[in-house]
């Protein structure tokens, strides 16, 4: 017995029920889903390439309209997405890494969020460092270089890493 495929709106709400998504991320996922379902439907037919291009334009317009309606209904909220990312990432990453990840979604931190992260960055870096290297980290030059690379890769600033490893 074949299941009927979910509508585009149902798929979008299902994705949003799992976690918050940015508009760009949800758009990309929905377009991918639609393209796969159209490709499967067209596999048996012999449609002209012009028809496929026109269908792609219609699909993009439908997805954009759906995203607008989801945002208007409060299902899709980029402020909530930023707060969710901060909640998930702040304990493990520095401000540079968090800002880079948000930039990939076309979003930025507001001034208040950035200030709060800067205030707690040394404390968060210390927690990450101690969790990874233990309460008595080694102090050799090669070991400190390794610890420094680890913290830098986590998005903590070079100045902060120097202060942490000196202190």
Can you give a write-up of this model?
The chain is mostly helical and 167 residues long. The chain is 74% helix and 0% strand. It has 8 helices and no strands. It has helices at residues 8-18, 23-42, 49-73, 78-89, 95-104, 111-133, 141-153, 158-166.
Per-chain topology:
Blueprint: H1 8-18, H2 23-42, H3 49-73, H4 78-89, H5 95-104, H6 111-133, H7 141-153, H8 158-166
Helix pairs in contact: 2-3, 7-8
From the N-terminal CA to the C-terminal CA, the straight-line distance is 66 Å
If you average the pLDDT, what whole number results?
90
Pattern of helices and strands: HHHHHHHH
Total E-strand runs: 0
Any idea what the radius of gyration is?
23 Å
User: Per DSSP, what share of the residues sits in E-state strands of 2 or more residues?
Assistant: under 5%
Low-confidence stretches: none
The domain tally reads 2
Structural class: mainly alpha
Shape: elongated
- Biggest sheet record: none
Tally of individual helices? 8
Helix percentage range? over 70%
| Chain oligomer state | single chain
Structure in a nutshell:
The chain is mostly helical and 167 residues long. Helices cover 74% and strands 0% of the residues.
Question: What key phrases describe this protein's structure?
Answer:
167 residues; mainly alpha; 2 domains; 8 helices; elongated
